[in-house]
Request: fold
Amino acid sequence: MNVVGFSVLMATYGRDNPAYLAEALESLAHQAVPPDEVILVEDGPIGPGLREVIEAWRGRLPLVSVVMPANVGLARALNEGLRHARHALVARFDSDDVAEPDRFVRQLAAFAEGGVDVLGGWALEIDAAGVPGRVRRMPQGHAEILDSLWACPLIHPTVMFRREPILVLGGYRTDLRRSEDYDLWFRCAKAGLRFANLPEVLIRHRFDASSHLRHAFRDALERALTGYRGAALIGLPLWKRLACFVPLFRSMLPMALRHPAYRLLSRFDPRRRSA
Reply:
């Protein structure tokens, strides 16, 4: 395999857990093929805990700090990080997840074969203590991903993409609070970019019942509207456009019922049936 240089793109902000960030960075340091640069965008002021973690890892990882004077949100932070990336391939990663040691080996091999612009994979859900839960599986091929794009069949922090086409599309939309990746995949599809998912776990993704606390009704409404517009953009049938509103109804349930509803509805997830 011809290994090419690649960048890892992350963002952190003041409310992030320093212990999670340390675990995330440690997982990057133990990759079979380490990144050539880790672009870490500081989205506004960060506390001493996060600062201590970043400085502790600066000598062990090729960290490139991009400092935003004020909190601007994930989309703007990622766009700024993209502008600093020096390599043609960029891997997204979240500050509270854990990368499997062979993540980048697998993704670089797939890019070396050609025919893909945006490449994700599966994720193992873990809770706050790192206890594993279910494996979040996604469809593999381009046609299957396009067919279920309304259900967002790409797990953002698993994705590696070609930097130049994303920049040509204008990067992430900055007027969206939590749907920046969802919107981007629709625009990638409209532009003719090729998708794929590796049928294997690439990251351990922190997600449990408390995760629903971070998703307010307005975020769910934004996501539903983003999905509806995106599905229309690429010509998906009306029922798939309307299906984008199912998570919105889940967000209207009492907090104690949201996670059980999420688990129940996951049995009918079209991404799992096409995986």
Notes: The chain is about 40% helix and 20% strand.
